[in-house]
Amino acid sequence: MALESKFGTGHPWIVALWSLAVLAFERFFVICRPLGNVRLRGKHTALGLLFVWTYSFIWTIPPVLGWSSYTTSKIGTTCEPNWYSGDYLNHSYIITFFFTCFILPLTIIIISYGKLIRKLRKVCGVGGVMMTALLKYHSGLPVLGHSLYSLYPCQH
């Protein structure tokens, strides 16, 4: 199997999920301003991208180096971590991989958007029009913006 194909299954979804986590944190940071008047700049974006891609490579390399292993998928089209082995090294990698590449970014997303929604609810209490504007402006996906607005409508 070519080394490139071994990174084909895990790497893209790690990048995707961590990119969503970084975006959620960025939105929380921009709207809630936990550090006061500190603004995010282009260098912060570059650092976020560097983090996401480096983190993904770090978690797809261990099977190549001997912690767990890659095997051909059941349908034979791609390689994947060896999910089905009873070996301790495979189990320890899969469990660690699950927490660091799924649970951790998901937790960041939930906490960031939870704090963001709580902040917007406070703003809604002061001036309902501001929440509507913030939800529409800061939503990367129109569906998400409308969903958040329908869950937490402002009373004018």
UniProtKB/TrEMBL annotation:
GO molecular function ontology, one term from the record: G protein-coupled receptor activity
Membrane-related topology note: Multi-pass membrane protein
Matching PROSITE patterns: G_PROTEIN_RECEP_F1_1, G_PROTEIN_RECEP_F1_2
Location(s) in or outside the cell: Membrane
Source taxon at top rank: Eukaryota
Any single GO CC term annotated in Swiss-Prot or TrEMBL for this entry: membrane
Keywords noted in UniProt: G-protein coupled receptor, Membrane, Receptor, Transducer, Transmembrane, Transmembrane helix
TM helices/strands, residue ranges: 12-32, 44-61, 93-113
Keyword Membrane: yes
Keyword Lipoprotein: no
All copies of domain G-protein coupled receptors family 1 profile, residue ranges: 15-156
Database matches in InterPro entries: GPCR_opsins (IPR050125), GPCR_Rhodpsn (IPR000276), GPCR_Rhodpsn_7TM (IPR017452)
Entry's family note: Belongs to the G-protein coupled receptor 1 family.
Protein name from the UniProt record: G-protein coupled receptors family 1 profile domain-containing protein
Organism: Synaphobranchus kaupii (Kaup's arrowtooth eel)
